[in-house]
Amino acid sequence: MRVQPDRCGRRRAATLVETALVLSIFLMLLFGIFEYGRFVMTRQLMENAAREGARWAIANTYNGTVAQIRNVVDARLGVARNQLVGYTPTSSILVYAADSSGNPISGRSWNDAAFGEYIAVEVVGTYQPVLPNLLRMNASFTVRAKAIMSSEAN
């Protein structure tokens, strides 16, 4: 008696379908990693720029201007400026006298901060992902970075 191999139907393009499925999941994961890295880089640059602006503001409380602080922050932002939609230094960089929690003190200018009082520099921008639909993300969202330091009132 002879055993004949089972002749099941050929599955044409099964490999192609499986490859497409695995490749699409892999690419979504890869693009997600790239997008997250881009967001973290932008956020870190914003935080560093705000910190440098606050450092400059506390050292030059009486003789500095908001324009000078904005120039310092803008210079430190570097490539993050390109990542933020609608970024302009005059509207995206805020400088104000703050309480210990970082909330603005109404009626007080940052120039009036006495020794030990707080000055805050805040950078606000709208971040827009490259492929939001593919990664099921919002088309854009607001990112804030704030640095609070106590004045040296020199």
- H and E order: HHHEHEEE
- The helix/strand class is alpha+beta
Quick one: how many beta strands? 4
> What Rg is obtained from the alpha carbons, in whole angstroms?
26 Å
Binned strand content? 15-25%
By DSSP (H or I, 4+ residues per run), the number of helices equals 4
Question: Can you tell me the residue ranges where pLDDT is under 50 for at least 5 consecutive residues?
Answer: none
Name the average pLDDT. Answer: 88
Number of domain units: 1
- Relative helix content: 40-55%
Biggest sheet details: 4 strands, antiparallel
Overall shape: it is rod-shaped
Distance from first to last alpha carbon: 104 Å
Architecture overview:
Helices cover 43% and strands 18% of the residues. Strands 1, 2, 3 and 4 form a 4-stranded antiparallel sheet that branches. It is built from 4 helices and 4 strands; from the N terminus they run αααβαβββ. The mean pLDDT is 88. It has helices at 14-59, 66-77, 80-83, 89-92; strands at residues 84-85, 93-98, 118-127, 141-150. The chain has one domain (14-150). The longest helix is centred in the N-terminal third of the chain and has 46 residues, at 14-59. By secondary structure, the protein is of the alpha+beta class. α1 (14-59) runs antiparallel to α2 (66-77).
